[in-house]
Amino acid sequence: MPNYKAPVRDMRFLMNEVFDFESHYKTLPNGEDATPDMVEAIIGEMAKLCENTIGPLYQSGDEEGCKLEDGVVKTPKGFKEAYAEFQAGGWQGLSHPVEYGGQGLPMSLGLIKQEMMATANWSFSMYPGLSLGAMNTIQLHGSEEQKQDYLVPLTEGTWGGTMCLTEPQCGTDLGQVKTKAEPQKDGSYKISGTKIFISSGDHDMVENIVHIVLARLPDAPKGTKGISLFIVPKYLPGKIGEDNGVSVGSLEKKMGIKASATCVMNFDEATGFLIGPENKGLECMFTFMNTARLGTAMQGIAHAELSYQGALPYAKERKSMRALSGKKEPDAIADSLIHHGDVRRMLLKQKAIAEGGRAMLYFSAQYADNMISGILEDDKKKYDHWDSELGFFTPILKGFLTEKGLEVANDGMQVFGGHGYIKEHGMEQIVRDARISTLYEGTTGIQALDLLGRKVLLTTKGKCVRDFTKNLVEFGTKNLRDPKLRPFAWKLLKIAAEWNYLTTRIMLVAAKDRDMVSTASYDFLMYSGYAMMAYFWALQAGVAKDKLENGGAEPAEFYKAKLATAEFYFERMLPSAKGHAEAALKPTRSIMKLKAEDFSFDYE
User: Fold this and answer.
1) Distance CA 187, CA 182 (A)
2) What is the pLDDT of residues 449-462, one digit of tens each?
3) What's the rounded mean pLDDT across residues 162-186?
């Protein structure tokens, strides 16, 4: 079983040497207290909590799972105690306003904190993770009274939160939501309906759970324009333990993340309160959705990292055959797996996705900080700008990183050979847990449609791609004459041109054939992911080269490994982007020509 070790050295490299978080924090209205010493202390203390308390519960939590007893969900042994330690440390409110019980630090620090928890124990991290979305939604759209009643205990961590969107008849297509909200004379509403797949829908680690629920008012417009958003607590404030018509119908039996309670939730005339304007529920909920999608993108990094931490020690210890280039360990009966080229390929893929994805996430976290600055400064123009910038990243991070995280989690299991298929080593659990990441908070296909259909074609007419590829062109032109960086620079210049060409071609074809948006979207997303990660690996390579020549905070071996991994990514992984580009430009004919009735498994 992998023993999680926080990748503090890589985190420091990105924060201090690649993205200069210290200077970034100085530009933020809530960044004054985010000094280097404070950041170091936060990372160090969270690393201890994850390594010593949360991580050791990963495998046992999977084996025990959650149980529904007398209408209450019981979490696995040790979870309550671990959460109590997490809550006592003030971790839940790290990046939330001081006036509501938080520490008021930048959102990026909260994401970095969440990454460590996610890697140590994804199931555990989902409980406080779901609360963050509820907190953000109430902070942005709730009244002052709602903030005092709900945001304060959520920020303190004594209460938990969920989002309740999906219903038995609808998932992504929320226009089909049937849950009803009946107005009451006192200004409250009676909420009635059933929601499914509700993560952290109920558990025994907090005294109350606040559900953020989508529902329809009487005579509301049909479709998505008629959905409102409500706060529906398990227990009303001041009435802990008294029934509010919220109950758990059942626990889902899942492939993975078994220590995370995924519930069917029944609302039987439960008392709820409108949050935000009537019939504008989806607009308010997207605050929650974008937060959740960034968090799910983190799952791709988390499982790549944890699987790498399991596979690497095994590859160094397990003896099997001799290396093709000759004996590497002549005194041993065979050479370690680490000396075999194909095993190295899998390990390097894991390392490239974990560290490349982390760079993508940390860069995006700075955008999130800037977006929050717009809220704190009451500057809507600033908020809208950075929200739009972050919106381009979100589907790429969520779609690409979860797909590649799942892929390299499988590679980690493959390193173990047959032993990877055995539960005691913990590698198959990582694969099972990773599988959900490409499904919830919008499947990869939905992320692809959001990226190509909404963000690229509809909203910006390709401008978001043109704007981001300026970064690739800048790095390429700056470093084209540097012997060590020229291979990266030259390929980035080619990618910048190819990405824009691909976007323009799809845009022209889609104007005549709308199916092109759907048939090309997955490959466009994957291409965009490979291209974006290439830029961030080149960026890391450039910093590593500079530190090797001029001195840095880390040992020389660390920077050499960065350069080697960047070289591997460009030579062995980036070529896959070309295949996605070619596939994206193919006519829709081969996908759409077969009639629906001709799809069959009855061949008699």
Assistant:
1) 10
2) 999 999 999 999 99
3) 90
Residue keyed to tokens 């990105």: 14
Domain boundaries, the chain: 283-447, 456-592
| Three-state SS sequence of 255-305 | CCCCCCCEEEEEEEEEEEEECCCCCCHHHHHHHHHHHHHHHHHHHHHHHHH
Distance CA(496)–CA(532), nearest Å, equals 10
Calculate the average pLDDT of the chain: 95
**473 forms bridges with which residues in the sheet?**
none
Residues 6+ apart with CB under 8 A from 433: 62, 122, 123, 256, 257, 303
Q: Characterize the bridge pairing of strands 159-164 and 72-74.
A: unpaired
Please state the CATH superfamily assignment of the domain spanning residues 283-447 in this structure: Butyryl-CoA Dehydrogenase, subunit A, domain 3 (1.20.140.10)
**What pLDDT, on the 0 to 100 scale, is given for residue 22?**
98
pLDDT of residue 288: 54
- Give the residues across from 199 on adjacent strands: 262
Q: What's the pLDDT score for residue 604?
A: 60
474-523: pLDDT as tens digits: 999 999 999 999 999 999 999 999 999 999 999 999 999 999 999 999 99
Q: How is residue 350 written in tokens?
A: 């894991």
Residues 561 and 569: their CA atoms lie apart, in Å, by: 12
Phi and psi dihedrals of 17, rounded to 5? Answer: -110, -25
The answer to whether residue 441 is catalytic is yes
- Single out the catalytic residue among 441, 498, 557, 571: 441
Please state, as a whole number, how many other Cβ atoms lie within 10 Å of the Cβ of residue 22.
14
In which band, very low, low, confident or very high, does the pLDDT at 9 lie, cut at 50, 70 and 90?
very high
